[in-house]
Structure formats: C-alpha cells, structure tokens
C-alpha cells in the first residue's frame, strides 16, 4: 500500500495501492505530457528553423555576411536568458493555461513576421523579440512537471517532453524539405514560407490551450477530488526521507536568495552548459555541416533526420533507466563521455577526405549531448525544495545555460569549414567540464546525505517543529539529495 499523506486542511490520509497510483499517473501523463511536448516542439522548430532557412537561401537573399548571420543567432540568447527567472516568477502568480498561450501567441507572431524581413536589421530585430517571447516556455514547462510528479518519476516524463526538441531537429529538416518547394508561391522565397507557416501553426495551437492545459493537481478537473488530494499529499512527502516539503508556500524574497546562492544550482549549470554550447552550435549549422561534406542542399536537410532520431532514442532510454534505478549521475556522466569520444573523432578525422565517417561521428556527438539534458535538469529540480526555490533555481540554471547558447552559435566558423576546429574543440572542452562538474556534484550530495543519515531523527524533531522543517526546504536535515 502507498502510505497516505497529511497536507494541512486536505483531510485524512489517503491510501492507494500501486496499481491505483499508476492509473492516476497515466491520466496525468495523457493529459499533460502530449500538450507540453507539442508546445516545446513548436518552440524548438521556431527558434532552430533559421538553420534550414539558411541552406534554402536566406543568407544570400538578405545579403548577409557570415558575421552578421552569426550575430542574428547570438542575439536570440540574451533576451531569452534574461527573462527566464522573471518569467518563472510570473508563472507562479498566473495560471499556466493563461500564461503559456500568451507566450505562444507572442512568439508565433514574431516568427510569422520573420518571413517578411528585408535585410540584416530586420532579421536581427525579430531574433531579439523571438528570444524575449520564448524565454518563459522551457523553464516554465519543466517547473510545471515538478508540480505533478515525485522526484523518482520526473526524468522519464522530462525526457518525453524534452524529446520534442530532438524530434523538432529531425522534423524541421523534413518540414523544410517540403516547404522550400513552395519557392515562388505568392512571390515569396521558400525560406520565407518556413517562417510564415510555422509561426501561424504556433498561434493556432495557442488559441486552443486555455481550454485543455491543466493548471495544477489541486484544480485538475479530469481527476476526482480524492485523486487530487492524493497527488498533493504524496508530493508534500517527496523529500527522500521522513520529512515533508512545501508545495504551495507564499512568495518571499529569501527564496530567491536561497536559490541564487546554492552551489548545486551552478554545478548543474556547468553540467548543462555542454548542451547549449555544443548542441546549439550544431542545431544551427548541422544542415550546413552536412552540405559541406559534399551532399546536396536537399539531401543535407534529410540527412539531419537520422542523427536527431538516434539522439531521441538515447535520451528516452537514459531517462527511463535513471528513474528505474533512481540515479542521476551515471546517466549524465556516461552520455557525456560518449559525446567526448565523438568530438575527439571529429577533430581527428582528415576532413573532407572521409565524409561518411564524419557524418557517422555526428551520431555519438549529438546523442551524447542531448541525452544528459533531462538528467541535469531533473537532478537540479530533485535537489531544490520548496516550490519557490525550485522554480527560481531551475530558471537560474537555464538562464546561465542559455546565455552560453550565444557562444554555441558562433563557434562553427565558415572559414574553418569543413574541419571546424573551434566548434569541435570547444564542444569537447565543455563536455569535459560537464563530466567534472557532475562528479563533484555527486560527491557533494553524497557527503551531505551521509552527514544527515548520522543525525538522530528524534532529536531533530524535538529541536524543530514540522513547520520549521518544511520552511527549511532542502536545507532540512530530513531532506535527502538525489545522487
């Protein structure tokens, strides 16, 4: 039997067996995960399709220099990073079913307008506004997941959601391949139709969300009142020990300070850095990299699909195993080691002598970069309590990680094609930094857990009231960090 949980005025403990718990979680899965995945897929399509548009003629038509194109890529990340923390604070005050559609309508409109830009200044402006309007989605969506699932259940769901990004990488190539055949329709180039059509789809989906996106377990109409109470109760007990955590406390500025001064947040940031630096670099340039190996522009678009599909499979497998064994570090460190080997091979290969081998090494490099992302995000979320510190700490992690995305968009230099010494070399460096940071974080959390295991629980409860222990969040001696 699953132990019931008291939660203030929620009434007596509720007990469900394992089968009943799984049934409730399946209801949540089917209602929440497909929606968040579709939203994130659209987001990733809209930010990354500039790489497909470049191959389809954007750079030539707008008369951009390589430096100007890279600056347009970079400009996206600064407003994107700057508004992630404020956005998560706003999300805590507004309902997700209202706030997320507002964001989508805003960035969908910006994306549609990207299809009518006339030159460098116009493209730069829409990329800045796109960064601003998309800023709140990923930190908001990942935080929303933590409000529904316990720590041991989170990474698999996070992977399902995040796999939309990997799927977007594959789908964008296929979609671009089809859309650029509209070249000349309405007097517009094919790359313009990529922006226009994908932006319109985003706005249409946003208009449906207020009616279908659930806000929280407390208000989920697709669950019975008893099921809602049970979800809230089990989440309040999800401390890794005998303690409880706050799930809906009032805002205080000290929660911002607690998140901003937590070393674990910054270690997970270093772990995550490898993805935006190495990952975004390839997202924006992968069609070009493949094209420069001697493949046609159309085939280069299609050849991105197997790479991202392989990364998607690896991401899901790592997440399922991480939740099954309730371990985060091995499924972060392992994939990054694979990525490091991939980048070493890409550096060592005599380009462009062996285009097939170069293309083959893109598989472990990209899969090894994508697979640990959910692990690093989940690891950070697992180790932050209560809800305000978790919301802000997750946003801080993504803020600094996404700032580094501006680096990633500038490391694949046209003059270095097809060897890309800077791109592959820096990607290898940040991957090694991620491995080192994960080892340190695992050691630190294990050390604190061991110290808390040696404390006397009765003495702790005699010294602190239940309210005081809950108010401590993850600093409570009854809280245990995920490893």
UniProtKB/TrEMBL annotation:
It is a multi-pass membrane protein. One of its GO terms (molecular function) is transmembrane transporter activity. GO terms for cellular component: membrane. Signal peptide: none annotated. InterPro entries: MFS (IPR011701), MFS_dom (IPR020846), MFS_trans_sf (IPR036259). It is found in: Membrane. Residues 32-449 form the Major facilitator superfamily (MFS) profile domain. Keywords: Membrane, Transmembrane, Transmembrane helix, Transport. Its main location: membrane. It comes from the Eukaryota. It holds the Pfam family MFS_1. The chain crosses the membrane at residues 65-86, 98-117, 123-146, 158-180, 192-213, 270-290, 302-322, 329-349, 361-379, 391-412, 424-445. The keyword Transmembrane applies. This is MFS nicotinic acid transporter Tna1.
């Amino acid at each position: 039997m699953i132990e019931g949980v008291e939660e203030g005025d929620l009434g007596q403990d509720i007990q469900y067996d394992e089968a009943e718990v799984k049934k409730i979680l399946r209801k949540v899965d089917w209602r929440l995960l497909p929606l968040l995945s579709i939203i994130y897929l659209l987001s990733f399509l809209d930010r990354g399709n500039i790489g497909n548009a470049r191959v389809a003629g954007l750079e030539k038509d707008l008369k951009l220099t390589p430096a100007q194109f890279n600056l347009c890529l970079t400009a996206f990340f600064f407003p994107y990073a700057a508004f992630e923390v404020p956005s998560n604070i706003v999300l805590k005050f507004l309902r997700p079913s209202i706030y997320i559609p507002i964001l989508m309508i805003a960035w969908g409109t910006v994306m549609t307008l990207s299809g009518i830009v006339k030159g460098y200044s116009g493209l730069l402006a829409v990329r800045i506004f796109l960064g601003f309007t998309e800023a709140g989605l990923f930190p908001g969506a990942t935080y929303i997941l933590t409000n529904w699932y316990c720590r041991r259940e989170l990474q698999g769901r996070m992977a399902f959601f995040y796999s939309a990004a990997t799927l977007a990488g594959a789908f964008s190539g296929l979609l671009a391949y089809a859309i650029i055949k509209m070249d000349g329709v309405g007097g517009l180039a094919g790359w313009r139709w990529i922006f226009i059509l994908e932006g319109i789809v985003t706005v249409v989906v946003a208009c449906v969300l207020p009616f279908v996106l659930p806000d929280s377990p407390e208000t989920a109409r697709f669950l019975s009142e008893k099921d809602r109470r049970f979800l809230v109760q089990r989440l309040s007990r999800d401390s890794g020990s005998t303690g409880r955590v706050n799930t809906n406390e009032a805002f205080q500025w000290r929660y911002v300070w607690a998140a901003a001064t937590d070393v674990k947040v910054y270690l997970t940031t270093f772990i995550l850095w490898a993805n935006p630096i190495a990952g975004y670099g390839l997202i924006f340039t992968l069609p070009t990299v493949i094209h420069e190996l001697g493949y046609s522009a159309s085939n280069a678009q299609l050849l991105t699909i197997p790479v991202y599909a392989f990364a998607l499979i690896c991401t899901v497998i790592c997440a399922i195993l991480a939740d099954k064994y309730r371990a985060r570090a091995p499924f972060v460190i392992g994939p990054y080691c694979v990525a490091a080997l991939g980048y070493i091979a890409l550096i060592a290969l005599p380009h462009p002598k062996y285009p097939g081998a170069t293309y083959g090494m893109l598989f472990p490099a990209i899969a090894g970069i994508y697979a640990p992302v959910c692990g690093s995000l989940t690891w950070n979320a697992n180790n932050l309590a209560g809800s305000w510190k978790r919301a802000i700490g997750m946003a801080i992690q993504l803020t600094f990680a996404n700032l580094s995305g501006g680096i990633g968009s500038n490391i694949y230099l046209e003059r270095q094609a097809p060897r890309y010494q800077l791109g592959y070399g820096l990607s290898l460096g940040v991957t090694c930094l991620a491995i080192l940071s994960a080892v340190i974080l695992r050691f630190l959390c294990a050390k604190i857990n061991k110290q808390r295991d040696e404390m006397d629980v009765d003495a702790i409860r005699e010294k602190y009231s239940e309210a005081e222990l809950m108010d401590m969040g993850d600093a409570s001696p009854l809280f245990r960090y995920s490893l």
